[in-house]
Design brief:
Elements: H1 6-9, H2 11-22, E1 39-40, E2 47-48, E3 57-58, H3 73-85, H4 92-99, H5 103-117, E4 132-140, E5 170-177, E6 182-187, H6 192-202, E7 208-212, E8 226-230, E9 238-239, E10 242-243, H7 245-260, H8 270-282, H9 291-300, H10 309-319
Parallel strand pairs: 4-7, 7-8
Antiparallel strand pairs: 1-2, 2-3, 4-5, 5-6, 9-10
Helix pairs in contact: 3-5, 3-9, 4-5, 5-8, 7-8
This protein binds zinc ion (ZN).
Zinc ion binds near residues 29, 49 and 54.
Length: about 325
Amino acid sequence: MKFDAPQFRDETEARRYIEALRWPGGRVCPKCGVIGAEYETKREGRYRCGAKECRKDFTVTTGTVMEATHIKLTVWVMAFYLMASSKKGMSAHQLHRTLDVTYKSAWFLCHRIRLAMANGGLVGPLGGSGQVVEADETYFGRVSNPETRSRTTGQPYKNKKNQRGPANKRAVVALVERGGQARVFHVAEADRVTVEKIVLKNVDPASRLHTDESNLYKRVGAEFASHESVKHTAGEYVRGDVHNNSAENFFSVFKRGMTGTYQHCDEKHLHRYVSEFEFRFNTRTKLGYTDTQRAQRAIEGAEGKRLTYRRTNEVEQQSV
Ligand SMILES: [Zn+2]
């Protein structure tokens, strides 16, 4: 998709584009849920619900992350496209320069689009009979309050220098279905109890679990059809079809994005960035998505996740 496509240039076209994604089967009143009973008002793009008891006015942005902004819909559509197609993410500064909007607008666009990309947790377990799910954890950056963190109890994988996963770094746990979806979590501490909970809650017990030799997974591994691990300390990364490469691939893109694009991310927002990378991973080209389709998926996710101006503003102030 080039930026000369009509939805990027014309406000009416942008509105129709978003409407088609949000309401493929006819316009739905966001207040009462009635379908196709609305009529047009004098203002373009504003509808009034025809249900007797309702009569609510709404637009395509009502009840979405786009609600109550003065940002043009063409800009929204472009921002969705840019964030969906940039492998390492897109900072507010980049968006501000590329779209020629104020930095403040760019900042809100970024946060709201990230929210649209968050899956909302309404998905079933990963894996299943005969399927491989890889579990792995990584550490990067610095935590904001290292003095309050204890050492991890389950010893994470030791590297060649025999160091443990450091307690003063941010921990991220990833579960990746081989050839499929990922679910990724920022945790305060990647200790055994935390990791076990995440694995049990998100992975189908009929799956084969693949990990490295970390003690974090030894106990929980028994809950699955099988638990196989490669021994990184012994230089073993692949044994037959046993490996952690899908999780490693996710971490590699994630870390490059976090250091290259979002180097100043406050730890309390990290889960938002994690969602963003998870979204792009789960709609990656290998799974058949084009950049355009990925952007459309994000726009579809905009519904029902309203982030108010005040809430984002508070978030911003806290992070200073
Ligand atoms: Zn209604």
